[in-house]
Design brief:
Blueprint lengths: L5 E7 L6 H9 L16 E8 L3 E8 L3 H8 L3 H5 L2 E9 L5 H18 L4 E7 L12 H18 L8 E5 L6 H13 L3 H15 L3 E6 L5 E4 L13 H5 L9 H18 L7 E5 L2 E7 L4 E7 L6 H18 L5 E2 L4 H10 L4 E2 L37
Parallel strand pairs: 1-3, 1-4, 4-5, 5-6, 12-13
Antiparallel strand pairs: 2-3, 7-8, 7-11, 9-10, 10-11
Helix pairs in contact: 4-5, 6-9, 7-10, 7-11
This protein binds guanosine-5'-triphosphate and magnesium ion.
Length: 389
Amino acid sequence: MSSASRRKVLLMGKSGSGKTSMRSVIFSNYTAKDTRRLGATIDVEQSAVRLLGSLVLNLWDCGGQDAFLDNYLVAQRDTIFTNVAVLIYVFDITSSEWEKDVHYFEDNLQALRENSADAGIWVLINKMDLVDKEDPKRLMYAERRAEILAMNERLSAGVDNAGPCRIFPTSIWDESLYKAWSSVIHYLIPNIKLITEHLTYFRDLTKAAEVAVFEGETFLVMAKSGSPLDAAEVELDEWESERGVGRLDRQRFEKVSEIIKSFRRTCQRTGEQFLGFEADFDGCVVVLEPLTRNTFMLVITTDPRLTASMVKYNISQSTIHFVEVGLTVSTFHRKCSICRDTVKKYMPHAVYDVEGDDDPNVVAWDDVPVESDVKPANGTGSHTPASQS
Ligand SMILES: Nc1nc2c(ncn2[C@@H]2O[C@H](COP(=O)(O)OP(=O)(O)OP(=O)(O)O)[C@@H](O)[C@H]2O)c(=O)[nH]1
Ligand SMILES: [Mg+2]
């Protein structure tokens, strides 16, 4: 495995803020209740999480008791802070020592910017479930968020290539946890632009309203068609606006992650295997089907002509190329104008090398056959979508 596909992720923050709980819910199938029996983490617990075979996250869960903190900043400074792709820093919103917590965060941020300037910083303000009732407008969260952003701006000024800083309110008791971690995974996938472009093409061709891909183990959403994952209503593309995507639940992906994971746990208890999901509502079909060995594709359609079996057929037809595109692949051999254009525009490190690329007789993946070429629905190798009218 190339080192480019291994990404180091630091998980830091004060003791009891919820670092190991998050890791266990997302990667080890714990329920939120199960985390009550976790003990404090001693020093650094490293684990490798493989996503889709080709991308490995090296998670460094750094115990947050005072006894370890100085050690990270002094004796282990180089070991901890070099080569970091993302720092996930967890705050406890209920902490009575906010000043001290922020001060310690500042020291970590400084060490990170010195040793891994381009690392992304994801700040998760956790245990929101404990304060939401007293502070429904989340004024305290907004205040703390502003303070952290200002601090990052100050410490990143003058740093070339400083990575982004994102802040999320989270709780292990609801889907907000999935939203934050999906955003990290999305950031870490090298071919994310390529995957997004293919999903958008697939959506348009098959007349779906929205298409998304989930990682098969964690059920985190990795990518979606059209506008960015956390786009506001004004950022939706024309296709999405026309098909009413703005009216869909803003938390739909995190909710799918949470529901499917808990349903799968039930399946495991009863010895069943979770294979997929489909629902046919009035004027809306939702299908969740395996796409590649470790991913699922979610397709939402609002076109009354489309049925679940048509959607499933289209998903199965796109599988081969989605496997080829992968998460980390950097040499492309199948003729496809989406790959060609995206590599040219956004991926200077990648190579698009297709024999006969300019030969019109070589069929590209995204060539849509004319009506007379359309093969019957049981044909293999054709990428004809099951809706072209
Ligand atoms: N209410 C609530 N409790 C949480 C949340 N996240 C974690 N907890 C609880 O907080 C306690 C401590 O969580 P841990 O995950 O062990 O904390 P940690 O950050 O790993 O602590 P160290 O390993 O000592 O650094 C556990 O009892 C969890 O159940 C949350 O979002 N809401
Ligand atoms: Mg811990």
